[in-house]
Amino acid sequence: MMFRGVTANRDYRRESTTSRRLIPMTSKSDSPRCMDLTELKSSRQYDTAKFASLFADRCPSYTLLVCNMRGEMRLWILCLKGLEDEFDEIHVDGENTGIGSILANKGGIIATMNIRSTRLSFMTCHLEAHEGVSHYTNRNKNLYQIFQGSKPHPDYQMMDATIYSHHTFVCGDLNYRTRFSKEGFAKVEKKSKLPMLSSRDISETEVTADDEPDNGSGYKQAMALIGENKWSELYAGDELCMALEKKECLVGFETLPCGFSPTFKVAREEGYVYNEKRTPRILWNSNDGVKGTITPGIYEPCPDFITSDHKPIRGAFTVQLNDKKSTLRPVMNENDHQIHFLVSDIKCTNLPIMDVQMTGGLADPYILFVSSPKNLTWNKNWPSTKVIYRNLNPVWDEEIHLALNHERRIESADQLCGDMLCMVVMDYDQASVDDVCGSVTLNVMDLCSKVSFNKEGLRKTTNFQNHDGLQKTHIRRPVLRNGQECGMLECTITSAYLAPGEVKAFRKTAGKKIRNAKFR
Fold first, then answer.
1. 3-class DSSP state for residue 162?
2. What band does 194 get if pLDDT is binned at 50, 70 and 90?
3. Sequence-distant (≥ 6) Cβ neighbours of residue 351 within 8 angstroms
């Protein structure tokens, strides 16, 4: 049921041609059930029927994969006909960030899917409006809340889409403004940054104080720059770019400069006629090991669009997929070589406070080793370190041994393309569900790029003291949670390709006690 945007996310199925639907969650073995645009054209909801009619008439070579409505936010994803069977594990979730986190006039929708060993997430969102420091801060907070509340997969509840997916795209009405002030951004820098709070605290925190005028404070300056086509000067005051530079939201994301007129707030006619009250945007992020595989092609407004006070932005991107084209390999057996990791020198610094003051006001961290595909490290639960109590700068006096359980025989590093190992820093809670402090995602292929896959050579090795055939990788990465930095993680990972008889010698290279696998 939906009434003026007061709604939770709903799975609208095919029982009726008049219902709004989204693609249902599917298991890995399922193929997505694509939707019939002809069916949606008969919807009683005017906008849904209109969209379906436009897509059917103007995109006849495309098939609709996802159709989701949340308040007035929509996410439609189409693919070329003939490719729909290559998509699987399509999951859609969303989060409201309107008043009381109930109203869906603000919030976001995230759809995540697999194609050719590549996970893609698409988020559309509508963030808090208006000018001023408090509204800017709440926009950053809205993004955090959307990633926190919209889970990309039921098996990975501890991850947000930016951690789980290889590539994440963010678009929609982000509502970031252009700042004009004699002081520049100096006064904003200290006030705007969200504190490191626990997940329960940040949902209760709202900035309401404001020290800047509302809409229109920079209208004359903006119009002067627009009149002279000085896009770079106008873009220099962009709040979104400031937020990305200061790492106050969407850490690691990129966007292109806006070399065109502002697209809001305009009269509902062709071209750009601005209202005196004063831009939709597209951003993307690629995970570890696949950065640089997205190439922007088009980034431009649609000035002839007249049915809204926003001019839409459209973008075109080329994404290099992880596509594993190797022939089907034999199933692994107990005598085959496996990839082994030895994780040592593990420590974290500046973790966020996760516990309430009455219990110490600190955190009780431990680390989960979460993999994708799931079977690499999963054994009814995820392997983990021990818990270090009441410490925001923990150092683990142990090493962790991981044997990756691939379903198919691995014979070269490129067959690991798309495999990910995520070190999820958790906060242990005795009386409730453990909280997520943040995560660091590592590309398995990069961790094994220098490993020797010469089976005969390794079988002659007896002690690994010369590190023959091994690869050591030193890791120092920010701990990320919902698009924000929440500390730093450091460790060393030694990688090897071992026969069963070589594992004992490999474990002896550890400088500290190896923890017997404990799964959580």
1. helix
2. very low
3. 363, 365, 392, 393, 394, 425, 437, 438, 479, 486, 487
**Helices and strands per DSSP (H, E), number in the chain:** 12, 20
Q: What pairs with residue 88 in β-bridges?
A: 114
Angle at 165 between CA 344 and CA 243, to 5 degrees: 90
CA distances from 158 to 93, 221, 261, 458 (A): 15, 45, 40, 37
Residue 189 host element (H or E): helix 186-192
Q: Which residue intervals of 59-185 are DSSP H helices?
A: 133-149, 161-164
- Asked if 79 and 285 count as a contact pair (C-beta separation under 8 A), the reply is no
**SS3 assignment for 198-267:** CHHHHCCCCCCCCCCCCCCCCHHHHHHHHHCCCHHHHHCCEHHHHHHHCCCCCCCCEECCCCCCCCCCEC
Nearest one of 17, 81, 76 to 44, comparing CA atoms: 17
pTM: 0.85
Q: Given a cut of 50, is residue 11 above it in pLDDT?
A: no
Q: What are phi and psi of 130, to 5 degrees?
A: 80, 160
Say which amino acid occupies 196.
M
Q: How many other CB atoms are there within 10 angstroms of residue 19's CB atom? A: 16
The residues, any chain, with a CB within 8 Å of residue 385's CB and separated by 6 or more, are: 346, 366, 367, 396, 398, 400, 515
Task: Tell which phi-psi region holds residue 40, choosing left (phi > 0), alpha (psi between -120 and 50) or beta.
Answer: alpha
Beta-carbon contacts of 154 under 8 Å, excluding residues fewer than 6 positions away, are 25, 91
Cα–Cα distance measured from residue 383 to residue 396, given in angstroms and rounded to the nearest whole number: 15
Question: Which structure tokens are listed for 58?
Answer: 């103007």
What's the pLDDT at 203? Answer: 43
C-alpha span between 465 and 108 (Å, rounded): 53
Beta strands 514-515 and 399-403, pairing class = parallel
Name which of 499, 479, 500, 497 is nearest 488 in CA terms.
479
- Cα separation, 114 vs 159, in Å, equals 16
d(CA 213, CA 330) in angstroms, rounded, equals 67
> What distance in Å separates the CA atoms of residue 495 and residue 444, rounded to the nearest whole number?
10
Cα–Cα distance measured from residue 518 to residue 360, given in angstroms and rounded to the nearest whole number: 26
pLDDT band at 421 (very low <50, low <70, confident <90, very high): very high
Q: What percent of the chain has pLDDT over 70?
A: 80
Mean pLDDT within 437-451: 96
What's the whole-number mean pLDDT along residues 448-454?
88
- In one letter, which amino acid is 143? L
Residue 167 pairs in a beta bridge with 120, 286
User: Among the ranges 18-27, 250-259, 299-308, which has the highest mean pLDDT value?
Assistant: 250-259
DSSP 46: H
Q: What is the CB neighbour count within 10 angstroms for residue 141?
A: 22
